[in-house]
Amino acid sequence: MSNEQDVFSKYGRTYGPGEAIFSEGEIGAEMFIIQSGKVRISKRTNDSEKTLVILEGGDFFGEMAVIDKGPRSASATALEETRCIVLNEEIFEQQMQNNARIVKKILKNMSARIRDANKQIENLLIKDTNRRVANAIMQLALKHGRTREGINLGSELSVEELAKMVGLGGEPEKVREVVDKLVHAHILGREADGSLVVVTLDNLEKFIHYLEMKEELGM
Predict the structure, then answer these.
(1) Averaged over 95-116, what is the pLDDT?
(2) Who wins on pLDDT, 145 or 12?
(3) What is the pTM (predicted TM-score) of this model?
(4) Which is more confident, 12 or 4?
(5) Contacts by 166-170 with C-beta closer than 8 Å and gap 24+?
(6) Does residue 172 share a domain with residue 141?
(7) 112, 103, 43, 70: CA torsion to nearest 10
(8) Which domain holds residue 9?
């Protein structure tokens, strides 16, 4: 048995597509490291649910509730079959005391999340739906790897998911209009599995800049 299999046999759990890993408001006693699969982190806002981020292999989540013993600040749901390493408070504290690399990675991760949260808050304050959606796509594109055809945002990013990210969960048709506009302009493309592809970051950036100028000029 390999070391990875040995670790999973001791601390691993498998979640099916759509299965809740934990819910917002629950008291947390464990953190999770994704071995494979994808997890959506979401939060309730008024009467809707907003997707904060989609995590994949190598990412971890749930550590804040273990650190401060408070309730979960968001919900975690498996988007596909997902394997996680689950660490309870005792094992987590052992790693924090004995593994400087883990401490550094957690601090970097928390810092990145704060930056991302600030960007999301700024984006939610934008009134123009076109610019809000385009900004969200730009932020996602910068996190994904480039392929020969462009930057694939992943098949799990549906229009409905994108709508939740930009605070329009109840109005996905508005987001679909913007996506269709970007596809028509050849800024976005669609793969056979329905995933969106940013064809060129330069053109997406130009589109965002155009919208900014348009708003500044009151057009």
Answers:
(1) 75
(2) 12
(3) 0.61
(4) 12
(5) 166/123, 166/124, 166/129, 166/132, 166/133, 166/136, 167/45, 167/48, 167/50, 167/124, 167/132, 168/129, 168/132, 169/48, 169/49, 169/50, 170/47, 170/48
(6) yes
(7) -140
(8) 3-123
